[in-house]
Structure formats: structure tokens, C-alpha cells
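hey so i finally got around to running the thing on that chain from the lab meeting. sorry it took forever, my laptop kept dying and i had to restart like 3 times. anyway pasting the input first so we r on the same page abt which one it is
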Amino acid sequence: MADYGFTGPSAEEYAFQWQPKPCEVEVEAERGYMPTLYREWINDEIVMRQVVTGYAEATGAEVLRQVIEATRQCATWSIEPDPQQFTVLKDVVVDPPEGVDPFLGYCATTADDTKTYWLCAAFFSHGNLLSCVYTVRADYPPETLDDLYGVLPRAVRHLTS
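ok and heres what got predicted. didnt touch it at all, straight out
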């Protein structure tokens, strides 16, 4: 992550963390999850996060297939406690990295009182693990997707090797 100006994660913890799943879906295969590794890198321009969750009763691919099916028609959703509205950018396609199947990628917008933010997320699996990598920027939609493409191959490599 040195190419982004990071010497290490800004935060790292082993506890359940929010994954930015479209429409905040929960699927049957997610029951029995185990603790999650959460890592975050933040500077003045970008936020990058990785959330890796292990499942005791399902493979990561099974969880991801159910998430993909449950989110096919997802276009908007809100999260609490601050009612933050997300809108999927249907015209932005997130291509999967090589060797990843199944894969879910999307970009969405959200806003606060002063700025619009772009979030691009990618979900992939290995064994009983489901990984989500996402990037967030304010007012820079193309760079947010470029950032995701910049870190995604590294995340896949670290999860699968």
C-alpha cells in the first residue's frame, strides 16, 4: 500500500464489521459466521477497507452466490442510525479479477450535507471465507473505481495464497 502513501493499516481489528452489501441483504448461508478481520486505510483523499468473514456452516462461494441472487434488483438502500441513502450506479461495471468466481462488484453514491461520496466494492471468496474490498472517495467517481482495481488483485492474492 506504499504506492497509496500508507505504511500500514490505519485500523485493524478482529470483530464483526459491516460489509457494504447492496440493499444490506442478509442471506441464509451467512448464519454461523465467525469473527471477521477488518482493515482500513485512510488519508485525506481516499478510504480503503477490507472485510474478511469466515463461515462455519457454508463456503464463502455459497454465501456470495446467495448475496448475488438477493441483490439482482437492488438499486437503492439506506443504513441507520444516520439515514444514509445509497444509489447503485447501474452504468458503472466492476470487472472481476482473473480467477475469481463467483464475484460481485458495484459502485454506488451517497451524500452528506456537504459532499457526494462514491463507493466501489468487490466481493470474492476462497474456501469458507468471503472478502469484501471497497474504496470511497469524495467527488471523484472514476478514481474510486481505479483505486478498487489497484488494490483488488492484491486482496485476491493475499486471500488465496
